[in-house]
Amino acid sequence: xxxxxxxxxxxxxxxxxxxxxxxxxxxxxxxxxxxxxxxxxxxxxxxxxxxxxxxxxxxxxxxxxxxxxxxxxxxxxxxxxxxxxxxxxxxxxxxxxxxxxxxxxxxxxxxxxxxxxxxxxxxxxxxxxxxxxxxxxxxxxxxxxxxxxxxxxxxxxxxxxxxxxxxxxxxxxxxxxxxxxxxxxxxxxxxxxx
Length: 194
Known about the structure:
Blueprint: H1 9-26, H2 36-43, H3 47-53, H4 57-69, H5 75-79, H6 92-100, H7 105-108, H8 114-136, H9 142-162, H10 168-187
Helix pairs in contact: 1-2, 1-4, 4-8, 6-9, 8-9
């Protein structure tokens, strides 16, 4: 079903207020215990206003993740082709995003929501990753490249959360080691011939 709601300043403002309220409530409640009433109370809106913009709470989470990842297209350049040893590469921008995103921390660091975050990243980046990794290592099937995507994004996400307390300078050696590992694995596959 296509979204036919008019997008004007009031709509944008209300959706942002609902998203912000969701984040405030999420800091104190588990995702599966958050109710529409919690969000409405926090946003100081009626249930009707909520339902005019979202069908359910999962749509609010989805919209927040869409907004968060909207400007991360540069990940495509890093995920499939790390340049090990020359500085922070690979999924480092995503790692930094996970560690530094104070506003979304309550979502990104909730282990119960990992599958939702990974699913959103897959919606946005999986197809490009598969194409790029097959371009680099042409002997891989789409299924094999997809497996590498999930391996890499899950690993990056886990490492980012585990080492979230490290400063960028402390994380760079860890990231460079991971980049060398990934590049070594990718380089072990025969290159695609043009």
